[in-house]
Amino acid sequence: MSPDDKILVWLSGEVKSPPFSEFGRLEAGFLLRRLQQGEKLSLPHSRPMPSVGGGCHELRIVDGDVTWRVMYHVDTDAIVILDVFKKKTRATPKQVIEVCKERLRAYRSVRDH
Q: Model's pTM, two decimal places?
C-alpha cells in the first residue's frame, strides 16, 4: 500500500468467503483496491448513488448466481464502506438507502469534529 492510497473505513458489512465465493471476494477486493489508489470506477463495476449522498456509489459484484453490492462513499482521504448486501431486485431497497444516508451523516459528524 502506498502512503498516497486512501484507507478503507468499514461502517458496515464485510467481504469474506462465505457468503462470497472466493472469486467474488477477490473481485470485490480488486475493485476496492483500485478505489483506494484513486481510480474512478464506472459501469459495469460501479454506479453513482446520489440518492444516498454526494460522492456515494454502488460497487457491483456478480458472484455466480448472486449479485452483491458494496455501497461506498469517496472521501478526500478514505473510501467509506456504508453497506454490503445481496441485490435481489432491480432497484436498491429504500431501507438500504436510508440506512446508508444515516451512516454517512454519522461518519461526517465524527469526521468533522
A: 0.92
